[in-house]
């Protein structure tokens, strides 16, 4: 009975194990087929102790599926920031696995922890060196990528040898990986610069588009100033622009920009001028206009036309024009980085007339998401500071929308104020008046500043802007009132002395407004133009002195200045003198030292007793005689500059331009040379590497005349092969030529003539064969057997044309 029970228990255990294996097998099969839930990948993020203990066992397993499961769990732990370096020895052992998926995960792990375990990482270097000779191009490229990514300085010579080996590889994908490994090796060991430059020079000869883009990236990182390496391949790079990938295009365009600024003269020697077609549109007057206006307009247009003609006389270098023509189609690219790179070339390297091409593509990019939209708008605002005419035709594209975030709204306001002219100011002001009604106080304040910039750009519209700002003074928003007063102050300085009514209206706001900036600006205006409002200014001073102790520091300073100015204009007025003395006494004991210093200075200038003491002691009383010139001198109106002016000193499209200061790695574009450098350095022979268009390599193989002549006439072995040529394996575009007898029409072959000639040759061959058979029939009977054997051999050779020469039987 006990034996029976033990057998039953063992049977139950075996059944449980079997069911567990079956269920696990079903799960594995489901994963292979793809039948897994939405959270199937979440199983690898399970950090329980049981799962972590099984990882080491899975990595040592012989089953690839278990190894993959363990490696995926390790990569998941790395993504969560957990340190799994303790499994480094177990992972390194799997670097020799034949499973590509396992190798990929092992390589990712090695890149993460190779610096922490340099000794163990060096153990896998031999495996990587062996993989560089693997027949699979993916394995070769992956080995070099991982080997160059291990940041261990000791292996830099080995990495350099691997780069040199892969740079001469048959696969363009491997050569591209070698180009990407060059900057890594350079950052690891800068002493290898000369050897890496030699590799870059050899890779620049490559005809594969994917290799050229990566090579130029390496060039920009290692030796961006070695333009002597670019001379030979400049025209090839221009012609290959459209064939490169998007990121390769950006790198090549950046290189060509620096090369063009170094090798070509300034295309705008007379300065940046408005193109002729735009200036003609602006010079057109209305039908009803005075003759004097028409004559002046004709003179201005004539002078502008002369200037444009002078600019048009400047002839561009052929290679300079080639660069601009090659870049133009890239403005239709879907990649915003490519479009911005082309815009950078046209902005920094093209004549004013050609720069018009970049406006429409940039405006097209404004339909993207808001982060990219902000970058494009910032670049447009920077360009509009120096060339506003480029974006006059796209005014409505820069109107603010209700869904725009704050940073895009402010940038659009900068653009609108930069491109404002006499022709479009009415539209812009009408739009800005709608923005003032926005509930966003900060946006309304920015809009008021924009109105002031428009008025200063077009002085004829200053009165209209001033009237509109005066209406905003009744707003309940203190911030709006303060900004309006600040802008009105600047506009009144432009108008001159005709400001009496405006200043009186502003002075009435002192009873209601509490914003310190607004009150300080009003007191300054009253003091500066006190001669025009001599009946109102003393009363304003009287009210200001009452609340002097409760005012802000900047307001106290302006009240002291107002008191001194009124005392200077009315030296014998007793009331004003008492008010001045009273406010100076209050400021003498103020908590702010700026206020005390200002009061001490003005006391020495305005109080007679103090002035006499100073005059007797050190002779400073001479300042009192020039008191009016000191306090009431004419002040120049302030110049409102956009924040984009600070970005104009940086290269367009760079990150340093966005943040308005120089960042690490930023390289400013060089200035134009004063004299044209020798253009003959770019004149090279039309050889295989430098010719434009696909390479045409004549290969002799099956189907050619040479093949027929060798195998039909019974010649010996041939070196012709129908396999993939070495040039094709290297990624070169090879066009097998037709027979040497084919006729050419221009640069192409006439196929009709070729097939006609081939048919005629076949007829001649058939006639020759018939003659040979007739002569053989007349020969002796002893030679008949030999002729039959030869005919049989010829038939067999004709059937075996697709075989290699070694497999065909030889004739006797």
UniProtKB/TrEMBL annotation:
Residues 50-606 form the Clathrin/coatomer adaptor adaptin-like N-terminal domain. One of its GO terms (cellular component) is endomembrane system. Belongs to the adaptor complexes large subunit family. It comes from Mortierella isabellina. Residues 758-771, 778-803 have a biased composition (Acidic residues). Keywords: Membrane, Protein transport, Transport. Pfam families: Adaptin_N (PF01602). The keyword Protein transport applies. The keyword Membrane applies. One of its GO terms (biological process) is vesicle-mediated transport. Residues 283-312, 756-812 are annotated as: Disordered. It is found in: Endomembrane system. This is Clathrin/coatomer adaptor adaptin-like N-terminal domain-containing protein.
């Amino acid at each position: 009975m006990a034996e029976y029970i033990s057998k039953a228990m063992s049977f139950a255990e075996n059944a449980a194990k079997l069911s567990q294996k079956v269920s696990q097998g079903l799960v594995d099969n489901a994963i292979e087929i793809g039948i897994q839930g939405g959270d199937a990948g979440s199983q690898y993020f399970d950090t329980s102790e049981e799962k972590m203990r099984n990882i080491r066992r899975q990595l040592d397993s012989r089953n690839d599926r278990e190894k993959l499961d363990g490696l995926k769990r390790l990569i998941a732990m790395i993504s969560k920031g957990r340190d799994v370096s303790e499994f480094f020895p177990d992972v390194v052992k799997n670097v020799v696995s034949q499973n590509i998926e396992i190798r990929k995960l092992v390589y990712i792990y090695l890149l993460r922890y190779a610096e922490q375990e340099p000794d163990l990482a060096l153990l896998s270097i031999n495996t990587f060196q062996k993989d560089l000779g693997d027949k699979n191009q993916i394995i070769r490229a992956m080995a070099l990528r991982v080997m160059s990514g291990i940041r261990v300085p000791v292996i830099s010579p080995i990495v350099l040898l691997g780069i040199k080996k892969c740079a001469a590889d048959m696969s363009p994908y491997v050569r591209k990986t070698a180009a990407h490994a060059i900057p890594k090796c350079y950052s690891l060991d800068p002493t290898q610069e000369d050897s890496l430059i030699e590799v870059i020079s050899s890779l620049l000869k490559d005809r594969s588009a994917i290799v050229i883009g990566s090579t130029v990236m390496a060039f920009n990182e290692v030796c961006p100033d070695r333009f002597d390496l670019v001379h030979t391949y400049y025209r090839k790079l221009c012609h290959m622009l459209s064939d490169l990938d998007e990121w390769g295009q950006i790198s090549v365009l950046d290189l060509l920009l620096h090369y063009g600024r170094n090798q070509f003269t300034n295309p705008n020697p007379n300065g940046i001028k408005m193109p002729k077609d735009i200036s003609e549109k602006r010079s057109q007057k209305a039908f009803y206009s005075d003759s004097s206006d028409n004559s002046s307009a004709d003179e201005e247009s004539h002078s502008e036309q002369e200037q444009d003609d002078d600019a048009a006389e400047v002839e561009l270098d052929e290679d300079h024009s080639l660069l601009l023509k090659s870049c133009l189609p890239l403005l239709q690219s879907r990649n915003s980085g490519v479009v911005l790179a082309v815009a950078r070339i046209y902005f920094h390297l093209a004549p004013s007339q050609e720069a018009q091409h970049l406006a429409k593509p940039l405006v097209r990019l404004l339909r993207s998401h808001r982060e990219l939209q902000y970058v494009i708008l910032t670049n447009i605002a920077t360009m509009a500071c120096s060339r506003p005419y480029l974006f006059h035709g796209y005014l409505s594209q820069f109107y603010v929308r209700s869904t725009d975030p704050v940073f895009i709204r402010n940038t659009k306001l900068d653009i609108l104020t930069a491109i404002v002219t006499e022709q479009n100011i009415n539209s812009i002001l009408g739009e800005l008046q709608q923005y003032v009604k926005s509930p966003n106080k900060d946006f309304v304040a920015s809009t008021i500043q924009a109105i002031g910039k428009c008025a200063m750009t077009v002085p004829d519209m200053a009165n209209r802007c001033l009237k509109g700002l005066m209406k905003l003074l009744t707003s309940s928003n203190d911030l709006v009132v303060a900004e309006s007063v600040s802008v009105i102050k600047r506009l009144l300085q432009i108008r001159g002395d005709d400001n009496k009514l405006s200043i009186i209206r502003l002075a009435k706001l002192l009873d209601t407004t509490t914003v310190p900036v607004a009150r300080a600006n009003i007191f300054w205006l009253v003091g500066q133009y006190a001669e025009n409002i001599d009946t109102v200014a003393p009363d304003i001073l009287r009210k200001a002195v009452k609340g002097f102790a409760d005012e802000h520091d900047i307001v106290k300073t302006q009240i002291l200045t107002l008191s001194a100015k009124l005392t200077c204009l009315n030296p014998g007025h007793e009331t004003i003198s008492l008010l001045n003395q009273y406010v100076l006494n209050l400021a003498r004991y103020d908590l702010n030292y700026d206020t005390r210093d200002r009061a001490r200075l003005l006391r020495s200038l305005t109080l007679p007793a103090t002035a006499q003491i100073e005059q007797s002691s050190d002779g400073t009383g001479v300042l009192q005689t020039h008191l009016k010139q000191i306090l009431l001198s004419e002040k120049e109106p302030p110049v409102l500059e956009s924040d984009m002016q600070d970005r104009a000193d940086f290269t367009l499209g760079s990150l340093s331009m966005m943040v308005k200061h120089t960042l690490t790695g930023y390289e400013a574009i060089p200035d134009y040379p004063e004299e044209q450098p020798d253009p003959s350095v770019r004149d090279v022979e039309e050889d295989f590497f430098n010719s434009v268009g696909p390479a045409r390599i004549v290969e002799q193989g099956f189907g050619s005349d040479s093949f027929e002549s060798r195998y039909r006439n019974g010649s010996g072995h041939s070196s012709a092969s129908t396999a993939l040529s070495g040039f094709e394996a290297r990624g070169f575009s090879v066009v097998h030529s037709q027979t040497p007898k084919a006729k050419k029409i221009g640069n192409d072959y006439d196929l009709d003539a070729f097939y006609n000639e081939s048919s005629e040759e076949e007829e001649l061959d058939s006639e020759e064969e018939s003659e040979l058979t007739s002569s053989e029939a007349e020969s002796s009977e002893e030679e008949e057997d030999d002729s039959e054997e030869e005919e049989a051999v010829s038939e067999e050779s004709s059937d075996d044309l697709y075989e290699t020469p070694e497999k065909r039987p030889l004739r006797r």
